[in-house]
Amino acid sequence: MSIAQNSPPLQDNTAPAVTVIKVDEREIVSRVIVSGTLLPREDVMIMPEIEGLVITDILVDEGASVKKGMVLAKLNRNALDISILQNKAQLARIDALIAQSKAQISEAEANRQQATNSFTRAGTLLKSGSASADIYDQKQAASKGADARLASSRQALEIALADRAAAQATLNTTELQLARSEIKASVDGVIYRRNAQLGSVASASGEPLFRVVANGMIELEAEVSELDIASLKQGQNVAATVAGITKPINGKIRLISPEIDKISRLGKVRIALDKDPHLSTGAFAKGVVETGRKRAITVPLLSITYTKTGPVLQSVVQSKITSKPVQIGLIGDGRAEIIDGVKQGDSIVARSGSFLRDGDLIRAVAINEELPQ
């Protein structure tokens, strides 16, 4: 604090000396401090899609950058390879049966045509008296038998085709299982946890084999008091300080939770941070959110007294105290914006206190520098 500059002496030198300051206009910045933990913006769990196979190869480790479709690990595929060979052999056998059935149908169609023609001629001869009824009956029976054999051949083909469809479905399933024996990344990102171990049996009911930070996007999940959360908005800039990193990380508020914890009275915000290779999930971080900036009439917070009716400044007019109700706007850096109640250049008590009353005569002592906060 600089040397005090005394105002002109008062006639009553017994009045108490009180430090006063001038209300001035300056830039004021309102900030909210938040703190929390770094988390993946999207936590992707890589699980095996096939059960009971042993992990034989692990191709990546924690911290590795991966691309969608990249192979991360391989499972034992020997049993699947054998099943595929068996399925293909079964398909080949069925294809041969289908070819045989088609040939039998062609033969049965030709025999039926011949039997039908003979039966037709026998009917003509029977009418003309050139053939007996026995011959007619024989030709009729032969025609019906040819029809039955053709129907049987066609049914055999339908059964063979159904068997082939079933065998093809089995082959497709086995080939899908074979493809799933390679554990692949489902998104671009960074592996931050690896649970896969060589020789262990892959299971979808256990821990994920890998956990990936999708697209490498890490954000700060911060807690904010219920008094401050109302001043936050999506898209506001945040300067985050992360434990172990000296340089601040820039970010923006991405999401504001609509819920306040009924016990802690804190709300949560999600702050998207710029990509940085030094960011680690689980790390502690603090953030500073600028919620307002303007040039306005301001006073130190120490000058304000809070009463039942609201905030008050103790104005000094002709060495007398006068309490003035004021309306406060932004608060920041130890100062408050005064929207209404006093004007620039007014003198006020630097440190308000209950020992002063309206009408009290004082001996004003002015200072030029800021009060210590």
Summary tags:
four-stranded mixed β-sheet, alpha+beta, 28% helix, disordered N terminus, conserved putative lor/sdh protein from methanococcus maripaludis s2 fold, six-stranded antiparallel barrel, 38% strand, 373 residues
Describe the protein in words.
With 373 residues, this protein is of the alpha+beta class. It folds into four domains: 5-27 and 295-366, conserved putative lor/sdh protein from methanococcus maripaludis s2 fold; 32-41 and 215-293, Efflux pump adaptor protein, beta barrel domain (Elongation Factor Tu (Ef-tu), domain 3, Beta Barrel); 44-74 and 182-212, RNA polymerase II/Efflux pump adaptor protein, barrel-sandwich hybrid domain (OB fold (Dihydrolipoamide Acetyltransferase, E2P)), CATH 2.40.50; 78-180, Helix Hairpins (Orthogonal Bundle). Helix content is 28%, strand content 38%. The chain is built from three helices and 22 strands. The strands form five sheets. It has a six-stranded antiparallel β-barrel. A four-stranded mixed β-sheet has the order 1-22-2-21, with no helix packed on it. It is elongated, with a radius of gyration of 45 Å. It starts with a strand and ends in a 7-residue tail after the last strand.
